[in-house]
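Hi team,

As requested, here is the filled-out complex form for the iron/sulfur cluster run. I kept the field names the same as last time so the parser does not choke. Let me know if anything looks off before we queue the next batch.

— J.
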Amino acid sequence: MDNIYDLRIGERQISIPIAIASMAGMTDGAYVRDRAGHIGIGFIGGYAIDEATISAARLLSGQGREEFLPRDPITEIAAQVRLVEAAGVIPGINIRASGVDALVSLAREVGDQAIYEIDAHCRQQAMIDAGCGEFLLTHPEILLSYVQALKISGVLVSVKMRAGVAADDAELARLLWKAGADIIHIDLMDYGVVKLREIRNVCPVFLIANNGVTDFECAKDYFAHGADMVSLARRSDPKTLATISEALAQFNREHGWYNSPKQLCRGGDIRSLAFCCMPVKPCPLLPALEKLKISPQEFVTLKMGSVKDTILEGGNGTCFGSLAYCCKDSTPCMFRDGTLKQAGIKKTIYMQQKRELARKIMQHVFS
Ligand SMILES: Cc1cc2nc3c(=O)[nH]c(=O)nc-3n(C[C@H](O)[C@H](O)[C@H](O)COP(=O)(O)O)c2cc1C
Ligand code: SF4
Ligand code: SF4
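And here is what came back:
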């Protein structure tokens, strides 16, 4: 499989940074298979897997909502996971559980080829009363214990959350990452990219941005503010997915870094430090460094140490004598472009090296 996006979750390579977000009663193995060419992860479910949540699903189904109500949830989920895998897509299982035991037995029975996504998103009262969905966002200690139990079972864990419900979304995200969550899949509701950036700036967890993705521009905006992937539920029709995935592949071919951040002074997230100047003037960099408890001198040492022996080290003709401080490719600059041309370096390679630099900066900040 090509790895054009250089993207992984655990040991798994992700072919396309677009996911299908779960819709109860709709997103099963066949749904994902029919869209397989345009996505990297397919979240099936949500599946209720224990007595309390199955009763809640029955109640909701009786009220006219679509729900999956298989006779034997574990056997059914395992079969659907196999279908997704056979289609070449990484399977994610969106799960409604009211306790840790059912989660752990599901992981034991179905195995580690799937991502286990805890549904901390559902706002249906019956599910909240059963102790899942949004209930978990207001009872973070329970949610954290689910993450830890699944991690101990040796599987990849995602938490599907809805923005604006927890007391502090960014702090919850940070705690989830500390507890071992591999993915935070966030429905941003009306909070949009501001919330996404807030989370990106406090932890390096793999982020899937969700809500209202209907075209490439919208996906691009999420990518430019910290998303590793985007997901679609209501508009996950094959045509929309194909349009976005083709435009993204084209963008990646032209720019080399599919989710490059905006510059810091244009509202970029922490990764944009890779494009920042030498800290020599009053601008948003100084307060950003202060917040991260990095002194200006440390920043210089970090940048120069990170680009040592790479193509970004040189750059005598640029503002600060090194491409380490140079701007994003979309900012026109004849000095940077002249330097790259003289050295025979393509702009896509320049951006890939900036991505590496951003990774090293993140590693330093969050280690
Ligand atoms: C009919 C329907 C069923 C849904 N069921 C689930 C679910 O079971 N679990 C879950 O985490 N989210 C569920 N969602 C939420 C979606 O995954 C997604 O977060 C939301 O629709 C916003 O994304 P979108 O704008 O791409 O649709 C459901 C959404 C819809 C419309
Ligand atoms: S250092 Fe340069 S790129 Fe960064 S915020 Fe300041 S002016 Fe913008
Ligand atoms: S040389 Fe150009 S790209 Fe580099 S820092 Fe100066 S303005 Fe930005």
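Two things worth flagging: Residues 264-366 form one domain. The CA atoms of residues 31 and 166 lie 31 Å apart.

Thanks,
J.
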